[in-house]
Amino acid sequence: MKSAIKSGLLALAAAALPAVASAHPAIGEAAGFSHGFAHPMSGLDHVLAMVMVGVFAFQHGGRATWLVPTTFVLVMALGGALGVAGIAVPFVEIGIAFSVVVLGAVVALNVKAPLAAALGVIGVFAIFHGHAHGAEMPENAAGAAYAAGFMIATALLHLAGLALGYVIGRAGERQGVFVTRTAGSIAAISGIGLLAGLI
To answer: What gap in Å lies between CA 74 and CA 102, rounded to an integer?
Structure first.
């Protein structure tokens, strides 16, 4: 049991660490993909939110296990297109930080919302995250490759969250609840820190 709890906390800590940017210069398609892949991995707000999406999907179970992450990635691509096109979406940074708070709280409290409502909330947050990715695309990056990069990175973070949920489930009912509440609370508190400008 203790090893499962340690594994879960280690997985959350590893996922929360910003990825180290590549030191190798690249242009065109390579620059597009590498920049797109690095962007979701380089911010604590994105990493925590994406991992919490995966944990939430696991907690919800059933079709939500694949529908929640898939919906997020697809709607995020739409948000990214809006960002690339220069179409403004209000309160993007606040929306991203708020998504960390809400998703962390949902995981900590093991909220069982109807699937349609869950997908709606996930979709709104995905627009904010996607817009940030698209708006921050480097000028020399290839658009399609950049989009593929941030979509794949996001999907991998969702998989990390699903894996964390599985590890938590293996810890047993009492220990699993403790680890879930701890992980969700860490994310929610971090989100509050982001909203307050302390992180």
So the answer is: 20
Helix axes 92-109, 44-60, angle to 10 degrees: 40
| Diameter of the chain measured on Cα atoms | 51
CB contact set of 109 (below 8 Å; sequence gap of 6+): 181, 184
The share of the chain scoring above pLDDT 70, in percent, equals: 81
Residue 171 sits at the vertex; the CA angle it makes with 167 and 176, to the nearest 5 degrees, is: 90
Average pLDDT over residues 138-145: 76
